[in-house]
Task: structure prediction
Amino acid sequence: MTGALLFGLAGAALVGCGVYGLLTAPGALGRVLGFNILGGGVFLMFGVVARRGAGAGFGADPVPQALVITGIVVAFCATALAVALLVRLCAVQAEAARGGDGDKET
Amino acid sequence: MSLIADAFTLVFVAAGIAFFAAGTLGLVRLPQTLSRIHALTKADNVGLALIVLGLLPQAANVLEGAKMVAVWLLAQLASGAVAQVMAEAVMAETKATKDAAPPEEGHP
Amino acid sequence: MADLLFAAATLLLLLAAAGLAALWRAGNDVDRMLAVQLLGAAGIAVLLLLTPATGDPALLDTALLLALLAALAACAYRAAFGPARQKAGTPPAVPRP
Amino acid sequence: MSALLVLAITAPLLGLVPLLLLGPRTGERAALGMLAVNVAITAGIAERVAQGGRALGYVVGGFAPPLGVGLRADGFSAAMMLMAALVLLFTGLFAMTGPGDMTRKVKARGSAGMPATFFILLLSLACALNLAFLAQDLFTLYVALELLTFAAVPLVCLEGKAGQLSAALTYLLFALFGSVLYLLGVVLIYGLYGTLDIAHLAGLMAQGTGGATAGAALALMSAGLMAKAALFPLHLWLPPAHSGAPPAASAVLSAVVIKAPLFLLVRLWSDLAPLPLTQVAGPVFALCGAAAIVFCGVVALAQERLKLLIAYSTAAQIGYLCLMFPLAASDDGPWSALAWTGGTLHLVSHALSKAAMFLAAGLIAETMGHDRLSGLGGVGRVAPVSVAAFGLGGLSLMGLPPSGGFVAKVMLLTSALQQGAWWIATVVLVGGLLAGGYVLRVVVIALQHPDSDAASGRGLPDARECRWRALIALALAFGAMLVGFMPLAPLPFLDIGRPVTWEGLLP
Amino acid sequence: MSLVFDAVLCLVLLAGALGVVTTGAARPAVIAFIGYGLLLGLAWVRLAAVDVALTEIAIGSGISGVVLLRCVRALPAEPLTPAPNRMLKPLAAVVSITIAAALAAVVLALPEPAPSRAADVAAALPATDLGNPVTGVLLVFRALDTLLEKVVLLLSLVGVWALSRDPACRGRPAPLSPEPAPAPSAFLARVLAPIGVLVGLYLLWAGADHPGGAFQSGAVLAAMGLLLVMGDQIRTPAAESRGLRLLLLAGPFGFLAVGFAGWATAGVFLGYPPGAEKAVIIAVEVAITVSIAVTLGLIVLGPPAGEERP
Result:
């Protein structure tokens, strides 16, 4: 059980890392990475909650584990959407910088 | 019987770790990226092979042992190919910098 | 026996971490990618060691996945930073029309 | 077990199939049909709740809540659902390809219908909102919030301009930060109680076993919801996102999207948290709300662009709901019930009036070719219906009779005075004055004689507002006025099904 | 001894996370993030969560890595750094350390014995005929969450496609590399992808009774698809293709159809027909695996580039 506690502390520290990344990142990509680290820490804490709830023949409470899987997929979707926005933004800005013909689209 | 199996496992795992250590050392000490790739791949493959070999007696059943071997084969294949990809990336990058460095603005 | 296997896994992890740290500070980005590959290889070995140590055969599936996806990162790196990548200062590559 | 609750969530999704498989026109018609069906379903739910006098419940998959997830509609959620469904339907009608749109293709800026993507997002919003109002499981609510975010963010940047893209990115990052905080709270709650069902949690929390951790969890969840609702210190993303989006998108974003996290905030503190904790947290929320009303109201006064002005007004108006928390939590019999009714009515009337105003502003901007206030002199002549819709919507923001805003603010004011909360009463009044300032400023400019607008040196354009679209905005504004004919008393409908329990709802 | 291993793993994990957030440049930060994902996968294994570990390795590290590396390419080489505030970093450090310490205190204060739903799941699982409790929670007990999460996935693809220059979202997404694939990448794709597809199918098949399932399998299949695209073995698919759209819809709407069918067969929405639970659950899993694979792959590939001109 103490092993789970260690990971719980690591999860808390990861949340701290993620917040630091969100606060200090110079660009949007850095913030996205910070968000991912933060999310990883939160998920890890959920995993610890699951591990502590081991019983009934299972090594861990399966409910939080299932929720974490859902959460990881959602977090990935968020990352991908943010990245797509960022890529498009960079392209539009680069176009505008090159010739200012970026606003001819409707 | 299990004592012999355990001893076998320990010897081979220890040897595997030694190879990993050698690979890591090479990775740190070798001067060029290309040679580092070489060191990494070789050490990994041999180290992993020794560990898999050592763990085979510990496998609960034949299927588990077969899966271990499958993991090793897959890792072998992947790391060989990855080494190629990375080496190609190094070549491409050095070529790009070489191309880009000498001429001032003469690039099409 | 399980303890010894755990000790071996710890040793591997430490080795990978040491290699990682050294490469991270010294190298260029390809070297950093290499460091990640090293980590992946050590991860596979660790998972293999933990399988008998914990008695959970499902860990082998994780190792299998790790071996499979190590290649993905390398390929993605190569695809993203090929020679067509301009040097600093030029605008980013626009997608093909 | 009421099947309507399941239909409320799934019916909007069914509309996605034709949108993704068939042509845009067919898909658009199917989408509007589904939005109408959604109104019918939510009206049916509201009617059942009112008739039965008790909440409706549904247990998905047949596994009762501690293990499975349940849906539940009480009076409060039924009212919110109906409001959201109406706003979505009207916005959908506003955004559809109209009779003249295909022929006027040449007019690049013209009010052609929105692309098919818009309708996909609108239907997804309907699903997400209904889920947020119905779900009783904290993790299902997390999924609902994510669904809402993923439907709302692309709405901001449908046109792909640089400003919109960066506003959407900021919005997404804020929303994601909010989700993570909310999820962290959920993790702690599960660690404490081993369940995420609101009814079960309310019982467990009332026993006071959680201690400081429970408080921390609620605080984290609230902070996350505040980031998503753009409540005062976390409102920075709202003005660029809501003002930059196309008008139909701005309308739903401002009117209903931010209402879901606000609703959950109310749910959290009135149904989940034990009363002593709510009484501690109430003043903090009220303080944030007061700051939002005053600060964002003043900033709105200083805006030079119509849509930005309306967006800042949204950030300010959110504050009124937060004033409700200490008043409703005071356990002061009829006066706290009055505050509760006032807060809810404010949510509803603000949604209707703000949708009307954003749609009207969009039409005004389209007619004039810009939305700079200094150049809008005399716009009342070319866009009379839009200006009327804007003015009527503004009535509700100012809190003048007859309007929903008036009734809501009077209720909050009465409750505050009766409970001796003078500072809240003052804030309500100051907020009304500020709203009066920025709404009247626009109306006065719009009604000016065009010639008096010498500074800009440009006359009125030949274009005319799109009449049927303006009428839709006007209808929404009238809806906000209709809310104003409520009696000035606690509404029993809103109290149906509280406190939250599954008793009598499970099979 | 296992405690020592856990402690070392936690420390390395933290070092990786710190590496991500303190490395100033984008490319090293993303590379560090890929390594961090691998370590997180190991941590999940140690928490007796092999299902999560598989998901984390496949999605959190593998596919996320592709997305992020691609993003680095698109960023301008010299990021516009705002004038760095001297106070920002120490202040941020203080804030983050405070938050981490508070959370650590909360973790230490969690109640003992821990509350758990494990017993409920164990009691209800036999009725579903599944051996893997996590699959049971995902597809039976909390099927509504999973169904809606499929919609989230679809919606994020809609969001990505909405960024296309073509408002009607036609055409193919740009390939991941602007140039033809080098020989080693092509070789890797040709050799590894078929094996990977087998592994993906194996995870799907195993998922009913052992760790694995639709998410993990879909992610592996998507990764293999991306590998093939990066190796120039297949073209990116055209967004307007009717077949592709059907594949996208198969998962969420197949699941929804099964949910409605449950009304008829089990008397409740998202119920499974008594006696045929496992067969129907596996059918649903197959449908959502296909949709997850296609959706994840397309999300990574990005918005379609508009209609092709011959």
